[in-house]
Structures are given as structure tokens and as C-alpha cells.
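Example record for the data management plan.
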Amino acid sequence: MKKTVLREYARLIVRCGVNVQKGQTVIVNAGLDQPEFVQMVVEEAYKAKATEVIVEWNYQPLTKLHYRYRTLKTLGTVKEWEKARLQYYCDTIPCRIHLTSADPDGLKGINREKMAKANQMSYPIVKPYHDQMENKDQWCIAAVPGVAWAKKVFPGMSKNQAVEKLWEAILSASRVTDDPIAAWDDHNADLQARCDYLNSLGIESLHYTAGNGTDLTVGMIPQGRFCGGGEKSLQGIFFNPNIPTEECFISPMRGKAEGIVYATKPLSYQGQLIEDFWVRFSGGKAVEVGAEQGEELLKTMISMDEGASYLGECALVPQKSPIAESGILYYNTLFDENAACHLALGMGFADTIEDFQNKTLEECRELGVNDSMIHVDFMIGCDSMDIDAICADDSVKPIFRGGNWAF
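Corresponding structural encoding:
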């Protein structure tokens, strides 16, 4: 891939993604797959007047070794220096860039029970720090090709060909055009217009049906609102948290979901795949699940804590989105969730509550925003999906027909 194009992508992530401001700290989390591109991102952040840029590297084979040889107590303990680092982040509110490139099967064979228990041990310690930063920071998730990921997506190609092909797909989906920032301005305006219409309807619930057997009704929070594209932090800085994105999303009312839903794409969760699965809800809770592959992992996921079996997000994405029309199955949630309507189990978003700026996080959760240590998106959209909005005035408005917007 031409360095000039990659430089434009790095600039997009820094300027339009997290929108680095003069004097801010930037944290970049990345795998070892594309160090040259990470260097470009770091340089662009400094050009945007960042005070310091910290790179945190990750590597799946090391993660597997840690879970093989460390004790559960060691894995689940949050050290004092880690607490100090988290507090430093709370005090300074850095920008966070996450560059995903992981192998979808990269943690296959890991001790799932040990990983789950370690996360359950550490989460109560780190949660207060995360809550302190909620909606205050700018963050952006973007992608770069890893060799194993590229080969998973394009198995018939050589390593170099697959990586180049995945670069092309990522850059196209991310709107890296002749003027990427202008393209994103237009895209954000379109998503905002759709959210404005949805928010004008007074939606009390959404009813999903599809030819694969999906029949699910999800209740909305009266004070909830649809969001999409860029958003503004509590510090007043506009940023784009996902590059790419095609969704209009909302956090539903905890405890109000009835029916069954079938996933339409594989889910990569903690470096392992869950495929051909379904979830049945009663009283808002996932009470029964099944999967052709990864069923035990799915059951572990929804039992991570009390909120893990409740919905935290409903997202609307048409089948005519650029990512869906590419016909590529990415085995990566950042992309696959933007090719189809999806739901998320676990944590909801406080910033989907009207006037959230003047409410505490606890007040937003009291209104019905779910709280959990997980937030896992899974795709449910297909070309036979219809979605109806049942509104406060008892009218029924078509939102999706045949997998696409009905307005």
C-alpha cells in the first residue's frame, strides 16, 4: 500500500477520529502487525500538538502464555502501579486510539474459565476508574491488517496478497478518499439526519422479524435517543469513536426484551469464534442460547456478571451499507457490525440519554441504561429483516423493510 495513502489514513484517525487537541496525551494500543503505520499515527499525533504519545503493544501468543503459566490470583490482581496509572488517566483524560489487527482465532485453546474468573476478579477494582472517565475522553477504534487476520478473510491468497487486499478493504470502508475528512463530514451529516428522524417518532419499542426465525421486541427508554457517527465529549470536543461506522444506535431499556433472535454472522469474542448462534430473551434477560460452534464460550460470556445477559445496545445498519455491499466477511466486529443491524449484550451508553451532560452516570443507569463488565456486539441483520417502531401515540412506523431503511 502506498505510504501517501497510509499517511492520509493515519491523519484521519488522529484529526477526525480522536481529534487530538494541543497539549493532550495520546495512548495508542496496537498489535505487532503494522509497526510502520503505528509510527505514522504517533507522528501525526505529535503534529497535532500532542504533549506525549504512549504506545501500548499487545501480542496474542504472549497472552496465551500468561494464562497458561500465571496463577489465577496473579492474573486477577490489580497491582498498585496499575491503579496509579489508571488514576493518572482519570486525572489527565488522554485520547485513546485502538488499532485492531488480531487473529480471529488467535486465542483458540486458551483456558476460558481462567480468563473469565481473572476478569471477574479485576473488574470491580478497575470499574471505578473507567466510570470516572466515562464520556470525558476522546477515543477511536480503527484497523490495520494482521497477517493471520488477512489470511482468514482471504484464504486463497498468499500472505502478502491477503494483507494488501485487506488494506484496500479497510481503507475503502473507512472512506480514505482524496479528501477523507470532507467525506466524513458528509457521512456524519447523513447519520445525524437519520437519528433526528428516529428521535422524532417517540419510539416505545422496536419489533424485529426475519425469515430465519427472528421475532424480538425490545423496549426503549423514554429519555433515550438515537446517536450515530461523531459525538462530543463532556469536554466539548467532537470526535469519531469508530472508523468505519454505518450505524444509528440507542441503548434500550434494561429488562424489556422478549423473543428470539438469530445471529447472521460469526462473532469473534476474546480471540475465539462463536458461529451459527441464537439467543432467547424473557423479561429482558438472555435466558437460553445455542450455537453450532462456541456454545460454551457464549454461555460464559452472558454469565460474566449480572448485566451481561441484558441488552446494552440496538444498532440499525442497512444491507446497502458499503461494508455489506463489499461482500467481505471480516471476522472482526468493527467491520461486521457495520454491515448489518446488531445488538449488544452488556454495558449500555449513558450518552444515549437526552441531556446526559447534566446527569450523573448513576442517574442514567437508573433510567434503564444497562451496566456490565462486557459490551459484545453480535450481528442480526439480513435481507429479510423488517423492523417496526411502536410509538407512544400507538402508531406503528416502518423502520426497515427487507434489510434496508424504510424511510
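Summary line stored alongside the record: The mean pLDDT is 96.
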